[in-house]
Amino acid sequence: MNSKEKQVPEEMSAIRQYEAGGALKVERTRVTRPGPGEVLVKMDAAPINPSDLALIAGGYLERSYPFTPGLEGSGRVVAAGSGLLPRLRLGKKVACSPAHGGDGTWAEYMLTSAMNVAPLPGGISPEQGSMMLVNPMTAMAFIKLAKEGKHRAIVNNAAASSLGKMLIRLSLSQDIPLINIVRKEEQIAVLKELGAIHVLNSSAGAFEKELKELTNKLGATLFLDAVTGSQSSILLEAAPRGSTLLAYARLSGDPITADPGFLIKEEKAIVGFQLGNWLQSKGLLFKLRFVSSVKKQLGSELSSHINRSYPIESVEEAIDHYRKHMSEGKIVLKIGSY
Mean of the pLDDT values across residues 122-142? Predict the structure, then answer.
């Protein structure tokens, strides 16, 4: 055994699901050793994200069962397969995500590709490090898409979420106007305290009129839609000619409803966004620079407020709390002793 490799047990505790929407069970399961190009991560922490809820519900992310959920987390690489990159990662504290089709981060150990781990910057806690990938990278990707598409302003309809708050900080630092949409009046003050300039309440009677006036005034042509359902139609109607509606989540659980007339007459487009697919389309040099940029801002623009931590044995309670209090901060599963 390499001097950097830690003693790895034969079995571990892991959260398992046996069917879409089924119960989550904490079970003892076998620890698989890494093969060529792979690493084994001893997990410290893992957040609960909307994408995790979609995965558990059996939505647009397909899975074979049984499996362990968890799309990101943090830990230490304790074993490495053959290859230069796995050996370079051995012993490092990392942010990590599962291999395509592999088991996730909600377990004591996770086997994944060495390409799916990134060393954590110094001074970052395991909890904060566990959230380095999904939301920070998505927020950074949206800013890049806005710049590449020469969009003068952005609209986001999940503005009170952790990702939404990152977008507020990034848009201010990048001087890109951002229209933030929330569902509750009390969320407006919270976002204003972060520096948000334009905040609209979708529950207000004048919402649709105010949204259309503001999008046309600012020239907002990139609409980030995490809700879908009937709100997609409202966004498209308010969108100026040539706008793009980018669907990146499905919080309402409903399909997009849109009048084809808005798309045809005014050349509006509906595009899906999934972070993994977007990154896969990029070259290695871009990915390295992108991750480096995210790491530099992890303690500032891309930080996340942590509402509460739970042990993995309390995963159902943790998910229930997250569903009821999404705008109050992240819920993190504490897995390792650190």
Answer: 93
For strand 38-47 and strand 330-334, is the pairing parallel, antiparallel, or unpaired?
antiparallel
Q: Give the whole-angstrom CA distance, residue 262 versus residue 237.
A: 7
Q: What is the pLDDT of residue 61?
A: 62
At 47, the amino acid letter reads: P
Structure tokens at 263: 């798309």
Number of Cβ within 10 Å of residue 19's Cβ equals 10
| pLDDT range class, residue 62, cuts 50, 70, 90 | low
Q: Show the CA angle centred on residue 234, arms to residues 184 and 226, nearest 5°.
A: 60
Taking residue 261's Cβ as centre, other Cβ atoms within 10 Å add up to: 11
* Residue 196 confidence (pLDDT): 96
3-state secondary structure of 98: coil
DSSP assignment of 263-323 equals: HHHTT-EEEE--HHHHHHTS-HHHHHHHHHHHHHTTTTTT---EEEEEEGGGHHHHHHHHH
Q: List, in order of start, the domains of the chain with CATH numbers.
A: 11-131+305-334 (3.90.180.10), 134-276 (3.40.50.720)
Residue ranges in 60-150 assigned as alpha helix (H)? 84-89, 126-129, 134-148
Asked if the model's pLDDT at residue 84 lies above 90, the reply is yes
Write the DSSP symbol of residue 92: -
The answer on pLDDT for 1 being more than 70 is: no
Q: Quickly count helices (H) and strands (E) in the chain.
A: 12, 15
